[in-house]
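Entry 14: structure prediction run for BioF2-like acetyltransferase domain-containing protein. Input pasted below.
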Amino acid sequence: MTAMTASYHRQVKFVQGQPRGDGGPFDRAEWFELLAESGQEPLVVSAGDAAMALTRANGRIEPLRNWYSFIWRPLTNDVAALTAIVDGLKAQSHRVTLWPLPDEDGTASALEAAFRDTGWSVLREQCDHNHVLEVGGRSFDQYWETRPGRMRTTLKRKAKKVDVNLLTQFDNDAWADYEAVYADSWKPEEGDPAFLHAFAKAEGAAGRLRLATAFHDGAPVAAQFWTVENGTAYIHKLAHLDAHKALSAGTTLSAALFRHVIDEDRVNLIDFGTGNDRYKRDWMEIDRPRYRLDCLDPRQPAAWLPLLKRKLRSLPGLASHRAAG
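Run finished. Output tokens:
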């Protein structure tokens, strides 16, 4: 048993100073503060200088996150602290479900080991995809030469049909154009416009925002919202008007942003978030898995029925029957 003990807090201020040095927006205290302000009740579990930003939902403990979060991970790389936090979670719930976890940095594997070593029953599954581009010192032109021929042809034919406005600071009119395009696009209804507006405004004030709009005959027809931080460009939101699909304004806008972050911001990585859409594979070169850990404490009666259901689902005969059905 580790000498460290876990402590529990209902305020995200306890993650101040904790975020990882290699992190992006989803590791920062400001991100968790926005989540708390949007109505989620934080459960911050800390040990030593480490912390996990969690919440209670659906009868279990889950990450403090929302649909805008590309990843969730503990704010620590310290094995002893991680073990203390995970062990302490038994006093808070019979079940902990964590996602979407990266593993290129060892997060999913380290968490899985910590939960197993402290007596939890752990189910690990891939829950999503994360498409990224490692720039590798290339210029935009060098990168563009490697894209599918149809993409390069489309840009060559359509680029002059729209005008691109790319901003590196927040602008109310530009944000209104983004919201108008998104509202009339093929995208589903925006989950939390106020949250996204607050995040974009804060990123603009910090100099991390990249907000671009494509115009045709003076009207916005496509818009994208990116941020740049610690050598990584994050593609948060993109949309175009279906009525102007023939303009391929989204391709023109993406190319302009890729050129900007590669040639001017000099990023090392471009991150297209979660999802396995075909168009992401056209722009990116690496598909990184995202994982879910579902952890049950077998010593707690509340975990017994979920454990039984998990066991039944793993039986070969039942699995074959479900597949046939």
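Notes: The two ends are 46 Å apart (CA to CA). Will compare against the previous run tomorrow.
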